[in-house]
User: Fold these one by one.
Assistant:
Number 1:
Amino acid sequence: MATGLGACDYTTREAAIVAPVDPPGGDPVQEPTDVKYYPSDEPVRLGLEHYNRGNYGIAQRYFKDAVEKAPKDVTAWVGLAASYDRIRRFDLADQAYAQAIRLGGETIQILNDQGYSYMLRGNLSGARKKFEKAYSLDPGNPVIANNLELLNGSRKFIERPPNNQP
């Protein structure tokens, strides 16, 4: 039996990988070996779970896996951007937000999340612009109202009188 396997040009696993995805006859069933087929959104679910637990680095890995598997998933891109914000990789967060906007437009959630991202960076005027734009689209949203209140509190905290300079 060993000699029979040794004579094969490739193994059974390799044969499954190089097998045609669309077999003759138009079989509508997707095979697990099809690169475009993913049986679940497990990476997004795990990313959200870890993000909500405060494990932002682990969440970032799951969201990155999710966007690699489903590059048109806006939820995965927003989760990836938010995770990057929390681990202070703002350069990568900006790229992820840009991709989410390309795919789904400037949604209220994205505007709010970008505002929060700018607030984390200390860019309070940029944060205010994003929060106000989100608030104009949904004035009854308590999360946006809370973030504007938080921003106003931050601004008051860091402003110093001119005579208090070094």
Note: The chain has a mean pLDDT of 81.
Number 2:
Amino acid sequence: MFLRFVTKSIHAYLDYPVALGLIAMPFLFGLGAENALAFWLSVATGVAAFALTVLTDHHLGVIRVLPYSLHLAVDGLVGIAFVVAPIVLGFAGLDFWYYTILGLTVLAVVGLHQPEDRPAAI
């Protein structure tokens, strides 16, 4: 049996720091030295993730107009895009590893999501 412990509440608490991290990390790590897309992809995704979180129907959403299921689907697509982007866009070095590791992490969090209709499975 697969461990699924990331509840809607846990996910909500991760959303804002991750969005802000996506905006700040390109500056902190110096991403995009060889390809500006490596810098701006993270910043733009962070801004979009912040907006998505504000609009998501969970306890930390501010406006709560988007269903949480849509939020999870978007997160899954971002994870896939982050894994594929370094290959398609030709990122190298730190840019490559930043997106690959971040994409795999996002996919893991989405994959570890616990459906709301049942308790955590161990």
Note: The radius of gyration is 15 Å.
Number 3:
Amino acid sequence: MTPDEMDAVLDRHFTAEVAHDLDTLLGTLTEDAEHDVVGMGVLVGREAIAERYKMLFAQADEEKYEPVRRYHGDGFVVDEVLATQRIVNDDFGPQARGKVVQYRILHVCEFRDGLMSRENVWLDTAAIMAQVA
């Protein structure tokens, strides 16, 4: 895939994340995609990944992702964004509910057959915890 083709898939994926549009988001993934969020483990397949996204969608709203850097390789992208979102549940403790947090995310995404086949996500959870303490 060309860098522009990979960017188009990522743009659809991230737009669907912000909109909490699970069907569109899953449509950017291969059937056997891997979703590896560091600290949460690796899930394989759209069905398992859907359950993780339902949980993530229940944690926060008002998401915004500001691009920082993006590097393209042969079939992969390394993408850094600055995320801003409002926490809506108690997953980070009851004191976190309603707080707006900002933190960095690093995505390492692999592509196959026009779709994302692997998404490795590194979240700056220390920044989140410092803001909700």
Note: The radius of gyration is 15 Å.
